[in-house]
């Protein structure tokens, strides 16, 4: 509450804000925006900086102080959407994955999608069989370092790259063999295109997982892909609905419902928090509109509830997929120059020259991380509040799936991995523990990837504890839990009161409209039996002569006076 109060007071004082956007190649773009600037202004600045025309596939993501992820809405003010103090920090990410990324018109667009999918591969969101994994990694090598050169690339050079959460020496050797033999002579553009063609055929292509629980309390991941709605549970894809089969998406509090063709609820899941459920619903509404509709003129405002006076309302603003592809086909310009990262260290795939960098941890937090590690890694490793990082055994854990199989329908279950689908905690749109930073560093030291630090999405735009007095450093976990519980109860009461007030206002408005309509009908010349009976009553005659006629004369006088003024001018 204190941070929101302070941020509100700062907005009243400052006319300009500093805003930093982390791009897909891990570089940063910093600009100054006006206090009333909308999201579209910032998004256009980024696209102009990147010389990007096919921009409808991308979006700007930020994280609020509660570590809940959001997509920046282009039609709303940036300052009103951000719940933290300036300067603001955000990330550019692929929001709508192209159904055929290799067929995109411009090379710059394909390169940015390539960077996003490479990031998905590294963070465990994109699963594939071993042979496909080796080929994808070999394409990344070819695109970033070029042809194999014995003088520059010593034995075991592929092990210096981190393509996946974990991989075996056997897989590393396979990656190096493919890079040495099958990909020689390919340009970066060709390797990236081949990488995209391979990635789009995978089962989890385009998956941005949302953690939920089913009606039995079992954990699951919900996702929206270019082809439909997907539910991943355990090591299987338990549900798949094409966009043509999904009719409505609804939510109330933590409950998320999916309706099929007959307008019946066929799937119900529970998000960790109401905010996470609302984010899930808005993502579903946007993806359904983008991939399902023929024209953007067909987009309608949707409600999260079946009652018109209750729930949230949201409308997708933007072009749909078919319009984007039609517009892309009309692009005629010289291909813009692309500045590829090359050997520059990347958080998604550390370079062979520099390797993984612990110094990517912000300086303000590096000292605290070091102290916590020295005090005891075991306590962090065994902490019940940490979020487990996906651990993949790359021997036979990748199961083959083709795109044709992926779009067959929802009958049956499709095995996608020998182990449970559990992406790294950087993708979680739900609040995580405060010490997840230290936990992530301890995992990196013990051989696993440091997903939160490498991705930097879980802390983008989130004020750090200890960097000011916004959050109490001395609060215990029990106090925090009690505060959250009381806050949720207050929010529920507020929502109920707002619903009652909304219903009351709607009722009063309808009664007022009906009264005006009745007066107009009775004062008209319509000769209808029930209107004739009303006109003959004493009450109506009194109302007509004492109130309506004087009011009508007063309005007529005012109109003549205004008309005379206009004529004289």
Which residues form runs of ≥5 with pLDDT under 50?
A: 1-12, 343-411, 425-485
Radius of gyration: 29 Å
* Beta-strand residue fraction: 5-15%
Number of strands: 15
End-to-end C-alpha gap: 56 Å
SS-derived structural category: alpha+beta
Average residue pLDDT? 75
Helical region count?
A: 17
Helix content: 40-55%
The main sheet orders its strands as 2-1-5-3-4
Q: Characterize the largest beta sheet: strand count, sense, and whether it forms a barrel.
A: 5 strands, mixed
Shape: elongated
Can you walk through the features of this model?
The chain is an alpha+beta fold. The chain is 41% helix and 13% strand. It is built from 17 helices and 15 strands. The strands form 4 sheets. A 5-stranded mixed beta sheet has the order 2-1-5-3-4. It has a 5-stranded antiparallel beta sheet with strand order 6-7-8-9-15. Strands 10-11-12 form a 3-stranded antiparallel beta sheet, with helices on one face. A hairpin with a 2-residue loop joins strand 8 and strand 9. The radius of gyration is 29 Å and the shape is elongated. The two termini are 56 Å apart. The relative contact order is 0.11. The N terminus is likely disordered.
How would you describe this structure in keywords?
five-stranded antiparallel β-sheet, 569 residues, disordered N terminus, 15 strands, single chain, alpha+beta
Task: Explain briefly what this protein structure is.
This protein has 569 residues and is an alpha+beta fold. It contains 17 helices and 15 strands.
């Amino acid at each position: 509450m204190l941070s929101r109060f302070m941020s509100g007071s700062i907005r009243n004082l400052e006319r300009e804000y500093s805003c930093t956007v982390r791009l897909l190649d891990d570089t940063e773009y910093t600009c100054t925006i006006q206090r009333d600037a909308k999201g579209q202004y910032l998004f256009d600045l980024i696209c102009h900086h990147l010389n990007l025309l096919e921009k409808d596939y991308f979006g700007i993501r930020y994280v609020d102080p509660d570590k809940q992820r959001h997509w920046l809405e282009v039609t709303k003010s940036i300052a009103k959407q951000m719940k933290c103090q300036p300067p603001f920090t955000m990330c550019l990410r692929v929001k709508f994955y192209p159904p055929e990324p290799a067929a995109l018109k411009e090379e710059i667009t394909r390169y940015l999608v390539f960077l996003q999918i490479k990031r998905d591969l590294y963070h465990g969101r994109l699963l594939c069989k071993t042979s496909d994994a080796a080929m994808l990694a070999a394409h990344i090598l070819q695109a970033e370092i070029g042809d194999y050169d014995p003088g520059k690339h010593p034995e075991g050079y592929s092990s210096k790259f981190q393509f996946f959460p974990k991989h075996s020496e056997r897989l590393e050797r396979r990656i190096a063999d493919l890079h040495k033999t099958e990909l020689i002579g390919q340009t970066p553009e060709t390797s990236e295109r081949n990488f995209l063609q391979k990635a789009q055929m995978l089962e989890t292509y385009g998956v941005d997982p949302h953690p939920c629980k089913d009606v039995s309390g079992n954990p699951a991941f919900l996702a929206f892909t270019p082809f439909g709605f997907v539910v991943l549970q355990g090591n299987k894809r338990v549900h798949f609905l094409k966009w043509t089969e999904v009719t409505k998406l609804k939510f109330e509090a933590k409950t998320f419902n999916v309706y099929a063709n007959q307008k019946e609820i066929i799937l119900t899941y529970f998000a960790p928090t109401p905010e996470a459920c609302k984010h899930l619903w808005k993502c579903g509404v946007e993806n359904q509109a983008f991939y399902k509709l023929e024209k953007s003129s067909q987009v309608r405002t949707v409600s999260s509830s079946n009652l018109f006076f209750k729930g949230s309302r949201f409308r997708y603003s933007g072009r749909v997929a078919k319009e984007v592809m039609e517009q892309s086909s009309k692009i005629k310009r010289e291909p813009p120059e692309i500045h590829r990262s090359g050997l520059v260290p990347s958080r998604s795939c550390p370079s062979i020259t520099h390797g993984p960098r612990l110094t990517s941890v912000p300086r303000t937090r590096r000292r605290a991380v070091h102290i916590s590690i020295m005090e005891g890694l075991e306590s962090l490793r065994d902490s019940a509040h940490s979020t487990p990082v996906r651990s993949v055994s790359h021997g036979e854990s990748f199961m083959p799936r083709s795109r044709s199989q992926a779009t067959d329908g929802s009958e049956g279950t499709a095995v996608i991995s020998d182990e449970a689908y559990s992406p790294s905690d950087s993708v979680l749109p739900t609040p995580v523990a405060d010490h997840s930073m230290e936990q992530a560093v301890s995992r990196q030291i013990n051989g696993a990837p440091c997903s939160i630090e490498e991705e930097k999405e879980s802390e983008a735009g989130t004020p750090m504890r200890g960097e000011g007095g916004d959050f109490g450093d001395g609060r215990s976990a029990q106090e925090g839990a009690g505060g959250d519980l009381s806050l949720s109860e207050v929010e529920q009461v507020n929502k109920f009161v707002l619903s009652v007030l909304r219903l009351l206002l709607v009722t009063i408005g309808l009664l007022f409209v009906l009264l005006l309509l009745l007066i107009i009908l009775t004062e008209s010349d319509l000769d209808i039996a029930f209107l004739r009976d009303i006109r003959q009553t004493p009450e109506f005659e009194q109302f007509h002569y004492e109130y309506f006629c004087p009011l009508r004369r007063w309005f007529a006088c005012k109109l003549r006076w205004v008309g005379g003024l206009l004529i004289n001018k």
